[in-house]
């Protein structure tokens, strides 16, 4: 396995894909996992006023859909949200955020299923991010990879596509 290193040559810590399941076991049942996802929508920096949960079937698989009408995520915010331990949330107008440890979305979503796809639209960017145990197993990944695709509109109405992982 190639080891990622800082500019000083010090190896960076990585996370094994098995950690996605291990981390999800912090939830003893699905209700605390669902609560984590609801909490994220109501953090003061998100500003969601509504939240919807829906169940559907995709290719004969049961799927849950969580949607809010909050501010959305740009690429940097999406990458932090799909990574572990990143949270720069602060109080807004005296309201303290719930999600301050950078772990709840990952533990909650992985408790409910093996894969999560996040669609988000902010003022300037639309992004799609994926955290998938199925994908990581299929490619025999040795560390967690979070593919993200972003689209930005141009003045001509066309979109610029950014592929990031």
TrEMBL record:
Listed under GO cellular component are: PML body
Entry superkingdom: Eukaryota
Q: Which Pfam families match?
A: HATPase_c_3
What are the GO MF terms of this UniProt record? ATP hydrolysis activity
Q: Which Gene3D superfamilies does the entry mention? A: Histidine kinase-like ATPase, C-terminal domain (3.30.565.10)
Q: Which residues form a coiled coil?
A: none
Q: What is this protein called?
A: Morc S5 domain-containing protein
